[in-house]
Specification:
Largest sheet: 6 strands, antiparallel, barrel
Oligomer: single chain
Helix content: 10-25%
Number of strands: 22
Distance between the termini: 8 Å
Length: about 350
Amino acid sequence: MKPTFATILTAIGVLFSIASNAQEHTIAAEKLGMLTANVEAVEQISTYSGHPLTAQMTPLTGQGYTIRTPFNLWRVEFLKMPGEQVKKEEAFVELMGPEAHHYYEQYQLKKTLFEQTELFYENNRKLFDKKAIGEQAWLEINKQYVALKLEMGEYHHFFDYVHHFDEVRDVFVLKAPADGMVRYSAFEKVSEGEEIASIIPSNAVRLMVSLPSTQTSIPSSVQTQNCRLKIDFAETVINQFYKRIWTEPVDDSCNLSFGEIVSVTPEYATTAFLVSKTALFDLQGNSYIWIKQGNNFSSVKVEILTSANDKLVVSSKTSLSGAMALTSSVSAMQGILMGLGE
């Protein structure tokens, strides 16, 4: 029997009342009449794969060791290629130029002077404590000591990276301050104060994954072509409609190059359910499925997370573990719910 115009109006009117509590709406299976009522078991899962995301192999901000030259360089010879791994204390670059020898001699003289000044300072400190010297004399000694100590600190900033100085060739050989990756740009010469290179610690090289800002769920890991990496943390700042999430450190098994942009598959760790695509129906913009309960079918609201072949991955406030979902005559059952076709 075809539905009358009045029946349609009535159905539209009751949609608003049944949409909010559709999860509790139950319809007897017999109302399907001669139509088939095939059901399929709902499978509960603890993880699922989402839509691909874009990621880049890059260092965490502010995690690198930046090495600058304290004098003008005429030549720089790297012992490692850009992106190559280096061990802590391993030599990785040689600095050459006429000023190299002068800077080394200057350091040695300052070092000797500081040792003498430090001894002089300590001796006079004891005298001052015993009131053997005046306050003005002590202040002048202290002022000279502090000034030289600050000056030596500037030298130490550079010499902390010095592996050794080759006095035969007048060459500074620098060492890596930590296990990590060498980064530098090609150049002919470097002026005083300019960057020579940087060492990115191994634990700072990560995959930075771009996540749409509208997405609330954070993956527990991402899968590349060669490895799976756990998500370490997510940034709260949104930049151009995306927020950044960072993986654990990237290891050699991933076979990725520094700066490389790749597509990754996110893995989400949460309770979800696999249902047939044919089980789904829409009501007032929300998604539902019919669950068999004895001789009845009850509608249960679900949220679509993603798709997997002929299945949908959904979540629900109602536990669907072990449930049987209607996979045929779903539209007919929806029509009955709306008051049509009865």
